[in-house]
From TrEMBL:
Keyword ATP-binding carried by entry: no
Transmembrane region(s): 9-28, 48-67, 87-107, 136-159, 186-205, 225-247, 259-282, 316-334, 346-371, 404-431, 443-463, 469-489
Protein name from the UniProt record: BCCT family transporter
Main localisation: membrane
Length: 665
């Protein structure tokens, strides 16, 4: 029987819209490009302030979260931990977030700014400084803030509240269960179309650069469409194979390989290029960026009308481009970020890629400017309008240029594959509402569609029209992202107050009645068998008495004996989360000096054991080894009293219904 996990309410409208725009762009590329350009230019000229304020708001919001009380909240349960190593995580961030763009614009953008006379400054030093400054601005904190807002929102609502990993989930505090209806489908259709258009255009331009590099190395004779078809066929096949292996294998391995190659190429240019000049220019460029940060952030060029066309074609276009890519990149970042804290997420996503981009753009862009002035006699400046070949022509001024160009092509190819397989994964994720396991034919379908439409558009000259369409969609999505922030702030406020809420005043501390027994317990070490015995006797008896008494009061409680070292009492509910109070045997390592000290508890082994209470909402657990049976019963009841107080408050609905959220389709 034909099986699919595709949700037709998302898939069919998306396909209708995608094919309609693509067919128009293929059949009438000039007309489509002209119409869409008119719309794009109207937005850029008259509504550019929306992009400026939105991106500025994103940066301010993330900086606020970084230093706020919410920074320690984990993207998942309180006891969850990251699924990927830090290196693999950062590698995948780069592969999805910038990828081909670093190779395509690493030399091209600084050179294009350097050769532009838009600012009316002819002096070499000022031109070079401006080229570096605006390149930093376009590839720095602002770009990654856009990705971080979407990624953080998705991670929080998916892993913390157990909602589907879908953009619709980010509206839960505002729309509640309406996210599962037409509103939610509309949001996901928008995200799927935006992702598809963004990846298609990027892969189309990536193919052109790969073909150009292969021609320069004499691997292929020309840059005709035939060779572009062969390149797409091979690379998309690799992307499909990688996507079929999953994030933990194909995408992670390719990302790790590519970061290694990228760093190697970076060091190659840094060492064999104008090293002292590059180090000095990076230092000065970083200071220049920091000094001008606020002027750049809020700048609209409104007083300098001659620079407005440049402003629209560069800054506003970049903000629109990053926003249009954010559903795709944000979803992928969220997928790989489970278990990180909000503070760790922001620091890593906002600062580490930014710092690397600054180094990359300095090494390649400033090297090209230096060679253009000292060796090339302006030859690289003349190629500024041809970014497809500029990187390879720049490498010709370095030793081992053939080898460096070959490595560059390999990097672009791997970036192409990782962008495609990440895109395939994300699009299938959106279209299936985060299905756990989809049939393999769906992965092949997405890869085939990407290859087919990118080639059709490339051959017909329709990529520019599709790019304009992608940039137009960024305007409404910038508003959607602001609503993400509103939802996230509302959820974080409730989250923090939920876990910060203390026990009721009925909580009774220790009395002094059993102080001799307590002292004996404190100064004696526990082995595993004694703690297991405590759980199987004192804890089990306490839970049994509680179960009986709960039943007398009309409450059904169950005792879950997981093993000899772990037991729970659980009260199940249909909508709100189940109440769970469990006890498990836990160990900790003892320091050598502690074992050898005479006036400390008698410990003979490197580990000591104790019973630890844990709770269904993953709040911080604690040691209960000194509790008597009645004190343990009292402890369970005070947690149950807290539970009832919290679930009775309407504002806590998001957190107390997360088990129910997880069942939503």
């Amino acid at each position: 029987m034909f099986k699919t996990t595709l949700k037709m309410g998302i898939f069919i409208p998306s396909m209708v819209f995608i094919f309609s725009i693509s067919i128009i762009s293929v059949v009438y590329p000039d007309m489509a490009n002209e119409i869409l350009n008119v719309i794009k230019n109207f937005i850029f000229i008259n509504l550019n302030w929306i992009y400026i304020w939105s991106v500025t708001f994103f940066v301010i919001f993330l900086v606020y979260l970084l230093f706020s009380k919410y920074g320690d909240i984990r993207l998942g349960n309180n006891d969850s931990r990251p699924e990927h190593s830090f290196f693999s995580w950062i590698s995948m961030l780069f592969a999805a977030g910038m990828g081909i763009g670093l190779m395509y614009f690493g030399v091209a953008e600084p050179m294009q700014h350097y050769t532009s006379e838009v600012f009316g400054i002819a002096h070499y030093v000022n031109k070079a400084k401006n080229a570096q400054l605006y390149t930093f601005f376009h590839w720095g904190i602002h770009a990654w803030a856009i990705y971080a807002v979407v990624g953080l929102s998705l991670s929080y609502f998916s892993y913390r509240l157990k909602l589907p990993l879908s953009l619709r989930s980010c509206f839960y505090p505002l729309l509640k269960n309406k996210i599962n209806g037409k509103w939610g489908n509309t949001i996901d259709v928008f995200a799927l179309c935006s992702t598809f258009f963004g990846i298609t255009t990027t892969l189309g331009f990536g193919v052109v650069q790969i073909n150009s590099g292969l021609q320069i190395l004499n691997i292929v004779p020309d840059t005709t469409f035939t060779y572009q078809v062969l390149i797409v066929a091979v690379l998309v096949s690799l992307a499909i194979f990688s996507a079929l292996t999953g994030v933990d294998k194909g995408i992670k391995i390719l990302s790790n390989i590519n970061v290694t190659l990228v760093v190697s190429l970076l060091l190659f240019v840094l060492i064999l290029g104008p090293t002292v000049f590059l180090i000095g220019s990076f230092t000065e460029g970083l200071g220049n960026y920091i000094n001008n940060f606020f002027n750049l952030t809020f700048g609209t060029h409104v007083y300098d009308t001659e620079t407005l066309p440049w402003f629209y074609d560069w800054t506003i276009l970049y903000w629109a481009w990053w926003i249009s890519w954010s559903p795709y990149v944000g979803l992928f970042i969220a997928k790989i970020s489970k278990g990180r804290t909000i503070r760790e997420f922001i620091v890593a996503v906002l600062l580490i890629p930014t710092f690397f981009n600054f180094i990359w753009m300095t090494v390649f862009g400033n090297s090209a400017i230096w060679f253009d002035l000292t060796t090339a006699n302006g030859a690289l400046s003349e190629l500024a309008a041809n970014p497809d070949a500029l990187m390879f022509r720049f490498l010709e001024y370095l030793p081992f240029s053939q080898t460096a160009s070959l490595i560059t092509i390999i990097i672009v190819i791997v970036f192409f594959v990782t962008s495609a397989d990440s895109g395939i994964f994300v699009m299938n994720n959106i279209a299936t509402k985060n299905a756990v396991k989809s049939p393999q034919w769906q992965t092949i379908l997405w890869g085939g569609l990407l290859a087919l439409l990118s080639l059709l558009l490339l051959n017909a000259g329709g990529l520019k029209a599709l790019q304009s369409m992608t940039l137009i969609t960024a305007l409404p999505f910038s508003i959607i992202m602001i609503l993400f922030i509103v939802s996230l702030i509302k959820a974080l406020h409730i989250d923090h107050s939920y876990y910060d809420q203390n026990f009721s005043n009925t909580t009774v501390p220790w009395s002094g009645r059993l102080w001799k027994d307590r002292l004996k317990q404190i100064v004696s070490a526990k082995d595993r068998s004694s703690v297991d015995f405590f759980i199987s006797t004192v804890v089990k008896d306490a839970f049994t008495d509680l179960k009986t008494e709960f039943a007398k009061n009309g409450v059904i409680a169950t005792i879950n004996i997981i093993d000899s070292s772990n037991i729970e009492i659980e009260i199940k509910y249909d909508i709100v989360n189940n109440f769970i109070y469990g006890v498990t045997t836990t160990s900790k390592k003892v320091a050598n000096y502690f074992i050898d000290e005479d006036n400390l508890p008698d410990i003979e082994k490197k580990r000591t054991y104790f019973p630890k209470a844990y709770f269904g909402d993953t709040r911080e657990s604690y040691d209960i080894q000194y509790f008597t049976k009645n004190e343990l019963i009292s402890d369970v009841l005070k947690h149950y009293d807290r539970f009832l107080n919290i679930v009775s408050e309407e504002k806590n609905e998001m957190l107390i219904s997360s088990d129910f959220n997880n069942k939503l389709e």
